[in-house]
Amino acid sequence: MTAQASAPHRPDPSVETELMVLGAGPGGYTAAFRAADLGKRVVLVDSAAPLGGVCLNHGCIPSKSLLHTAKVIRDAGGLEGVRFGSPQLDLDAIRAGKDRIIARMARGLSALARQRGITVLQGHGRFTSANGLQVAGPERSTAVRFDKAIIACGSAPVRLPGLPQDPRVMDSTAALALADIPRRLLIVGGGIIGLEMAQIYDALGARITLVERMDQLLPGADADLVLPLARKLGRRYERICLGTQMHFLAATDQGLRVRLDDKGGQIEETYDRILVAVGRHPNGANIGAEAAGVHVDARGIIAVDAQMRTNVAHIFAIGDVVGEPMLAHKASHEARVAAGVACGQDLRFDARTIPCVAYTDPEIAWMGLTELEATRRGIPFENFTLPWHVSGRAMSSGSGDGLTKLLIDPVSRRILGAGIVGACAGDLIAEAVFALEMDADAGDLALAIHPHPTFSETLALAAELAEGTITDMLPPSYSRG
Ligand code: NAD
């Protein structure tokens, strides 16, 4: 008899808790922290050891760190009247810098969890019943019995059928690991991830081909906002193929051979690496939700009501797993609702808008109604677009091709939507979100004194345009004769 066979059977350790949160991304950790602050005993479960989920470990934060490096390289190269030598890249140091930021922030989250008395369990969690979850950890399995649960298990990159299992074919996680800089990189998907990763690899020296199946980059955004970015990228990248499908042909020692098909014909090319960024799918299908009676649809989405409750009243779901938009700031907002309701508060998710930001150069941000959506839904609006060449700050910063536009209700003059392309657009859009939430009209924005010279002035100037009071350019009354 072997020693192993004679070892006594050790039962799974078990934990009882008032609230179990499955997933420790921005949705999950916010929910866990908030519920602990409201007095609940909380267990937080995640398959990865560092807290923070995709956002901190493989998404928003590492990409922002690398985008910062990319922007400094580009800005230094384009500074008028100053010439630097060509950049010397130390990829190990760039990678280490990014990893240090992640590690420091993850340590901060762990400390916050510890200080709140939250039990953190590492391992893949699967429901075993409506009040039970089994956590398969790296060394042992733990049974968690809970009164209430919040599912915040996120999403994973969509894989394209027909592509081989080859380290040269990357998703966003692999691309952010920055194994090397390929000579020629094909990026499939011209959405937010594709565009952000293209800017990183371009600045680090790769020649980029970007393939998007729709007729516009960032298909969800208004075309006028995308144009300044598309023009800039068109001058830098090897090729941008819109309305194009990629067909994989072969993986050889020389590279990855593909065919690109558009309305005009076909070309065959070989690339050193391919990055697939064609969306993400919710992770609802692999947590054993059926054992808890929680309904998951064919796309892996868990439906919830305005209180973030699933079809099982004591189980909530938040973040990417409840569907689009899959954004960290939506998840953390939903987390506060779910945690509050689980703790007896009467809350609802009633945000009027969830802003979107592409951290490209120039940045693109939008909130509320887009022109695309207003037109599709037949909602009347007036469009007031301020070109940034009237802004002294934008001109002094090489951002004269930016735009700030407001969509205004023709009757009430209230702000329906806003879009910005240019430096700091992602930060500037927050003022428009606040204005929309406060039911502000164009006059409110125009009459709030904005500091000069700042990018933020462009929002006030766009509002002055709507009010007909602008003096920095001719008001619309002149063109009406
Ligand atoms: P996405 O849906 O934003 O963009 C995917 C793009 O790929 C779309 O433009 C789509 O038309 C295109 N596409 C799909 N199939 C294709 C094909 N076969 N060939 C060519 N093009 C194809 O998805 P993403 O960029 O992968 O991002 C995933 C999610 O993560 C999104 O929900 C996004 O909002 C979120 N995210 C947000 C940020 C941010 O807020 N800055 C950053 C990264 C990711």
Q: SSE layout and pairings?
A:
Elements: H1 3-6, E1 14-22, H2 26-37, E2 42-46, H3 53-58, H4 60-77, H5 91-115, E3 119-122, E4 124-129, E5 132-136, E6 141-151, E7 155-157, E8 169-170, H6 172-177, E9 184-188, H7 192-203, E10 207-211, H8 223-236, E11 239-241, E12 245-252, E13 255-262, E14 265-271, E15 273-276, E16 280-282, H9 289-292, E17 315-317, H10 328-342, E18 356-358, E19 364-368, H11 371-377, E20 382-387, H12 392-396, E21 403-408, E22 415-421, H13 425-437, H14 442-447, H15 457-467, H16 476-479
Parallel strand pairs: 1-2, 1-6, 2-3, 6-17, 8-15, 9-10, 9-15, 10-11
Antiparallel strand pairs: 4-5, 5-6, 7-16, 12-13, 13-14, 18-19, 19-22, 20-21, 21-22
Helix pairs in contact: 2-10, 4-5, 4-7
Residues 160, 188-194, 211-214, 219, 245-246, 277-280, 325-327, 357-359 line the site of nicotinamide-adenine-dinucleotide.
Q: Globular, elongated, flat, extended or rod-shaped: what is the shape?
A: globular
Q: What name is given to the CATH topology of the largest domain?
A: FAD/NAD(P)-binding domain
Helix coverage percent: 25-40%
What is the terminal-to-terminal distance? Answer: 100 Å
How many helices? The count is 16
Range of strand content:
15-25%
Total strand count, please? 22
